[in-house]
Structures are given as structure tokens and as C-alpha cells.
């Protein structure tokens, strides 16, 4: 039996702090926050790297989570310890329809002010009302939501594409995921000791969990990605070990993404820990020598991010959204290649 305070994922103080920081809490365990790239795209001031790499329309993206708690306390996380940590789900379970409807409502309410910006075009002001993508990654571990498959299906039925990010601590949840547009594993270090130091995981068997997650990633039919959050002078060595882990997970894509010196992470790192794009290019060139089945695809300078992809994808890094929705809503068998495209595809 859970104690009274454990029946809710957040305390009153946590709720107040999160609201002040621009989050909007939805139901008992979900939250939305407007991504900076959504605002920038609306004003015509650039697009996010997921637009550059895969064709996500940044101004039509809903950034949210279906669970506020996380099983790690990563030192590089800008969000710090505002949200709770836990090894297992607790508290009530809201329905997928409730979460989606209220998340979109809150997202649109938060965007109201930004639409009046002088650089926002009428076309984009209209388009932002039509959410086309959801980034399930805002904070916590959205994959732990017990109805995660149901909510993913509900998004796909509305022709909203889904990116789901996990830090590889819940392999049993990964095994359950039936359909998702792209599944991400964040791998924050290449050795057990370093992972413990950086992520400060709650689970004692965190290394085994991560390896199990990688094994499962290799068996997924949908598009998969390993994200390496690169912190200079911290986790940019051990190239052979990174290559081993990546081979195990066999993702379609590898994203090299610079650590950003913002928020709570400034307590642990210095601005010098942010790699330049040249540092990432150097890492990319070296790791590609060990991963001969991958190739360089693209980079996004403002985010200091680089995309590598499997050569067997034949540079089809764009998402064919119409195909994805047709496949997933008709229960057809498929592979990542079936909805990957060589040319940019619009999800209107
Ligand atoms: S895909 Fe990610 S970075 Fe791009 S707009 Fe959405 S939340 Fe922001």
C-alpha cells in the first residue's frame, strides 16, 4: 500500500516550481512545455535538428511527457531534481485520450502569446494549431506510463508522429512497445563506472538494464536511434567501447549531440565541457572507422548535433509520414525502411 504522499507523482512544491518554469501539468502524471525550437520556427528563426535530419515540423511539435519520474539523476540534465525519482510507476493512471486532449489544449494556450510576434507569418500561426508530431521526452521516463502503447496508437490515429526517448533503464517497457515512429536510447557513457558516475542511476543493475535495452533495440521493427550526449573531458573517450555498445543495439541512426551548459547541470560542469562541432566531427570520424556499416549524413550547427545512419538505409533518413500512419493503423508488418525516404516528406 502506498503512503499518501506516494499516491501522487509530484509534491505541491514540485508542481509550483515546474509551473513557474513554464511546464503545464496535465492530469496526474503528464506535462507539456513549449520547445524553444517551436517558438523559433513559428517566428521563422530556424528549425530544430530533428527537422533538419528527419523532416519533423518544429512549429507543429508538442513536447511532453507521460511520466514525471525518472530512474536516474544525470549530472548533465538541465532539469535537475525538480521531478521525482523512482524505480517503478506509482499513483493514478490517466487515460490516453484525457492526456492527449488536455496536453494539446495546454500546448496551444502556452503558444497564444508567441503567435503575436512580428515575425510569425499568418500561415504558421494557423499551422501551429494542428499538432503533427509529439516528442515524448520532456522530462522523466514517458515509457513507464502503463498505457504507453495505447497512447502511441491514439497519436498515430490522429496522424501525429511519435518520438519516444528512454535512458535504457526499463527494458521490459521497451519490449512492450508495438509501434512508434522512432525509438531513442540515450547512452551517456561507454563503461559501467562512467555511467554510474554521470547518470547516478537508482537501479543497482543499471548496466545490465542498459545492455538488455540495447539487445532489444536491435530486434525492433520501427526506426531506432542511439543518442550520445557528448560532454567534453567527460565521456568522449572509450571509442572502442562505444562502438561495441552501438553494434549491440544496431540502431538505424546515431545522433551525436553536444551537452549544453544550462540549468542545474552548471553545478557539475563548466562551459568548457560543451564540445564544439569540430570536437563532434572528430569523434564522428573516429567512430565511423570502427563502425564501417554507418555513414555520416548531416549536421545541425545551432544544436551542435551530427547524424550518422546505417549505410543499408541508402541515405533514406527522412520519415515518410503518410506511409507510417497507413502501415501502423492497418496493422501491417513493416520494417524501418518501409517508411524511410530519400526525399523530404511533409506531414501536413
Ligand atoms: S522535435 Fe524536439 S527539438 Fe524539435 S521542436 Fe520538437 S521538442 Fe523541439
Explain this structure to me?
This protein has 348 residues and is an alpha/beta fold. The chain contains 12 helices and 12 strands. The protein has helices spanning 12-20, 36-42, 49-54, 96-111, 122-127, 148-157, 171-176, 192-199, 206-217, 239-249, 277-290, 321-329; strands spanning 24-26, 30-32, 61-65, 133-136, 161-166, 182-187, 223-230, 253-258, 294-300, 305-310, 318-319, 340-341. It has a 10-stranded mixed beta sheet with strand order 1-2-3-4-5-6-7-8-10-9, sandwiched between helices. Helix 4 (96-111) packs across helix 6, helix 9 (206-217) packs across helix 10 (239-249) and helix 10 packs across helix 11. The chain is globular, with a radius of gyration of 19 Å. It starts with 11 loop residues before the first helix and ends in a 7-residue tail after the last strand. Residues 1-6 have low confidence and may be disordered. Residues 35, 37-38, 48, 50, 56, 58, 61, 63, 135 line the site of iron/sulfur cluster. Iron/sulfur cluster (SF4) is lined by residues 35, 37-38, 48, 50, 56, 58, 61, 63, 135.
By DSSP (H or I, 4+ residues per run), the number of helices equals 12
Measured by DSSP, the beta-strand proportion falls in 15-25%
Please list the strands of the largest sheet in the order they lie side by side: 1-2-3-4-5-6-7-8-10-9
C-alpha end-to-end distance: 47 Å
Globally, the shape reads globular
Structural class by helix and strand composition: alpha/beta
Indicate the topology:
Elements: H1 12-20, E1 24-26, E2 30-32, H2 36-42, H3 49-54, E3 61-65, H4 96-111, H5 122-127, E4 133-136, H6 148-157, E5 161-166, H7 171-176, E6 182-187, H8 192-199, H9 206-217, E7 223-230, H10 239-249, E8 253-258, H11 277-290, E9 294-300, E10 305-310, E11 318-319, H12 321-329, E12 340-341
Parallel strand pairs: 3-4, 4-5, 5-6, 6-7, 7-8
Antiparallel strand pairs: 1-2, 2-3, 8-10, 9-10, 11-12
Bound molecules: iron/sulfur cluster.
